Amino acid sequence: MDERRELHTTIVEVGPRDGLQNEDRILPAEVKIELIERGVAAGITRIEAVSFVHPARVPQMADAEQVMAGVPRPGGVSYIGLVLNRRGLDRALAAAVDEVNAVVVATDTFCVRNQGVTTDAAMDAFEGIAGAAAEAGVRCGITIAAAFGCPFEGQTPPARVAELARRAHAAGAREIALADTIGVGVPGQVRDLTRRVRAAAPGLPLRFHFHNTRNTGYANALAAVAEGVTVLDASTGGFGGCPFAPAATGNIATEDLLYALHREGHTTGIDPQAVAATGAWLGDHLGKPAPALLGRAGPFPAPAG
């Protein structure tokens, strides 16, 4: 028996948040809710559904409470709300998210542009967020953004990422996500950061968030899986990017990642063809074709009949 068939990879669908936050066209709440409903129907069980940031900063996410009020609530599905500060956490808790995910950018210049504070100040805020979330009984994770490189400062020192992971672990983070926010990483960095962060935050679940800006996102995802990482972020259709980083485009597409993982023998519990259909549907709503390729090329082997 092929032992790979026993491996399961969890996909965190970030399309409703990261996939939409950089788009010129702001979709109404009912379309965002349908996007989430389609993902749940396809078998996705963890969804970053909303972001509780100031609407003046990211107007695409201004209706977070309305979206959370309308999402389906089947058993086994967990909704994540992204927060940057205590005000965002309070909104997230009031909206009844299942998890919160705080973001800390690994470089000061980008962190100031993204959330108005230095990296150290953002980590101080995270410590308060993690403690308050724990008191509320809500799982709290952290994304260390620009973990591979920064558009303003260049290469991000790996030791800096490891130190942030150590602080996150000490603060009570339940999961650490490393984000290649501008899509500059390569598999060797994935292997190095995985090992450094595991040493700095022993026993803490690790996930990765890759962008395919320079066509390395899927190679990086497979490198992470080869290191034993079992949770990866992806965005239906391959939409997404950061409004505060120049040319930060191209989340890895959920359907294309599913194709690669399934062909490698991993299970996900998600129907890639259903996700591909949703990617095309989302492209229609955004007024441009989805960057993902599975919906264009089709599955292989082709379905019988």
Structure explained in plain terms:
With 305 residues, the protein is an alpha/beta fold. It has an 8-stranded parallel barrel, surrounded by 7 helices. The protein is globular, with a radius of gyration of 18 Å. Helix 6 runs parallel beside helix 7.
Topology:
Elements: E1 10-13, H1 29-42, E2 46-52, H2 64-70, E3 78-83, H3 86-94, E4 99-105, H4 108-115, H5 119-136, E5 139-145, E6 149-150, E7 154-155, H6 158-171, E8 176-180, H7 187-200, E9 206-210, H8 217-226, E10 231-234, H9 254-263, H10 272-286, H11 294-297
Parallel strand pairs: 1-2, 1-10, 2-3, 3-4, 4-5, 5-8, 8-9, 9-10
Antiparallel strand pairs: 6-7
Pfam families: HMGL-like (PF00682)
InterPro entries: Aldolase_TIM, HMGL, PYR_CT
Protein name: Hydroxymethylglutaryl-CoA lyase
Order of helices and strands: EHEHEHEHHEEEHEHEHEHHH
Question: In what order do the strands lie side by side in the largest sheet?
Answer: 1-2-3-4-5-8-9-10
Poorly predicted runs of 5 or more residues: 1-5
The CATH C-level class name = Alpha Beta
Mean pLDDT: 94
Per CATH, the architecture is Alpha-Beta Barrel
Number of strand elements: 10
Strand content: 15-25%
The structure class reads: alpha/beta
Radius of gyration: 18 Å
Based on Cα principal axes, name the global outline: globular
Q: How would you name the CATH homologous superfamily?
A: Aldolase class I
Number of domains: 1
- Largest sheet descriptor: 8 strands, parallel, barrel
Instruction: Tell me the CATH topology.
Output: TIM Barrel
Helix content: 40-55%
EC number: 4.1.3.4
Protein name: Hydroxymethylglutaryl-CoA lyase
Family: Belongs to the HMG-CoA lyase family.
InterPro entries: Aldolase_TIM, HMGL, PYR_CT
